[in-house]
Amino acid sequence: MAKSSKPPAHLRPATQKWWRSVLADFDLEEHHIRILQLAAEAWDQAQGAREVLDRDGQTFSDRFGQPKERPEVGIMQNARIAFARLLRELALDGVDGLDAPRSPRTADYGSRR
Questions:
Q1: Domain that residue 43 falls in
Q2: Distance between CA atoms of 91 and 93, rounded to whole angstroms?
Q3: How does 68-84 read in b/e, with b if 16+ C-beta sit within 10 Å?
Q4: Reported pTM
Q5: How many domains are contained in the chain?
Q6: Is residue 67 part of a domain?
Q7: Quick one: which of 3, 72, 99, 106 has the most CB atoms within 10 Å?
Q8: Residue 108 lies inside a defined structural domain of this protein
């Protein structure tokens, strides 16, 4: 596992908790931790956009009174897509056995990578 297991301070507390659980459950190399950080940031970005949309709605009226989609709709959509893709890159799908993309920390599969 990579040396640093402390979640970045700018992540939300719930996302920091998820970060720690991923590192506790899986052996990740340094480059995987960078992908994990990007995934965590994408999740937080989607959550922030979701909060704005919950508060203000999905549209607003422009200066001509025409309804326009809030920028947060696109931000949320892009962040969700990024999160899903990054998570797929990490292969943390919970599949057990020798064919699993990533071995859980608790499993003993030898030196197989």
A1: 35-90
A2: 6
A3: eebebeebbeebbebbe
A4: 0.79
A5: 1
A6: yes
A7: 72
A8: no
